[in-house]
Amino acid sequence: MVSDLLAKAKEARLRAHAPYSGFIVGAAVESVDGEVAVGANMENACYRLGVCAEQSALTAAQQAFGLENVARVLVIGGPADESQPSVGPVTPCGGCRQAIAEAAQLSGRNIEILCCDREGEETLTTSIAELLPSAFSLD
Ligand SMILES: [Zn+2]
Q: Are 128 and 95 in contact (CB under 8 A)?
């Protein structure tokens, strides 16, 4: 259910570690059976070691139910500082698109992607095939 997925991603977002950018993101990955794995971005003083919320959630999903069973990914993000304006729906970065494409290739299915603003009110519904056409793969 989308509202459940949104609630879990919102909760995960609040556990992000992003002291450098102040931009916190949560992601919830849903399996074909309705199981959910979550993640949030985790930055590091050594900037290049930072991990996106989607990658973090996909790692948890692999452990929980396997990448080949991923059906849907919901991403929610925005400035941690609530006095800052929200920035509209947050879409996965190029690297995360490639990571989601890996899961899609394993299952042979397209994966739905729901991109939300910080409040979860403004949403863009798309898919990995739409966000990353001609993805790099073993094929
Ligand atoms: Zn990313």
A: no
Q: Give tens-digit pLDDT for 47-106.
A: 999 999 999 999 999 999 999 999 999 999 999 999 999 999 999 999 999 999 999 999
Give pLDDT tens digits for 5-49. 999 999 999 999 999 999 999 999 999 999 999 999 999 999 999
C-alpha span between 16 and 38 (Å, rounded): 11
Helix (H, G, I), strand (E, B) or coil at 135: coil
CB–CB of 39/57 below 8 Å?
Answer: yes
Q: Which amino acids are annotated catalytic?
A: 54
Q: Where are the domains of the chain?
A: 2-131
CA of 25 to the centre of ligand 1 (A): 10
Q: What is the dihedral of CA 23, 62, 70, 86, to 10 degrees?
A: -10
Whole-number Å distance, alpha carbon 51 to ligand 1 midpoint, is: 7
State in words which class domain 2-131 has: alpha beta
Is a pLDDT exceeding 90 seen at residue 1? Answer: no
Strand pairing partners for 36?
30
